[in-house]
């Protein structure tokens, strides 16, 4: 089973501390724009997936969208541990809900190419069978986007160990793992709205 993690659990420092999921673009909340793109792309691919939202505030608003809302298991209220903590909680959800493979989608990435999921997934079933320890990382031109990942639920052990050591950097964790890139050919194909 496939899963999609909408990463919306951050502090939103570059957005003045706002919950980025509820910031608006053309009068639509970021989270609604992202979920609509995910649904459209899954339908086009003929795939079903567990869509989950990683969030740590405005939980009832997220829950009203109709998808599981997963809070970070680390830290207390207002103690934001970063996107890796959100990914960790989603992978734990995957263990109990039989999700084998995940694609992460940051909530501020409101404009992606229509084939984004197809490119991000690659041949994910083959990867799970032959090299499940490999993590896919998005690259556009010469830039890596560390919050855009394709990874197996089995990465949970490594991720837990890394976070238990007190480290939080996605880039730092990926440097300890085997990674390959998936590529978009133009930065304009990935619209990130992460600051005013």
Automatic annotation (TrEMBL):
Q: Pfam families, per this entry?
A: NTP_transf_3 (PF12804)
Does this entry carry the keyword Transferase?
yes
UniProt keyword annotation of Lipid metabolism present = no
- Cited SUPFAM superfamilies: Nucleotide-diphospho-sugar transferases
| Residues annotated as signal peptide | none
The protein's matches in InterPro entries, at most eight in alphabetical order, are given as: MobA-like_NTP_Trfase, Nucleotide-diphossugar_trans
**Keyword annotations of the record:** Magnesium, Nucleotidyltransferase, Transferase
Record domain MobA-like NTP transferase: where: 5-141
Give the source's domain of life in one word.
Answer: Bacteria
Q: Name one GO molecular function term.
A: nucleotidyltransferase activity
**Name of the protein in question:** Molybdenum cofactor guanylyltransferase
Species annotation: Thiosulfatimonas sediminis
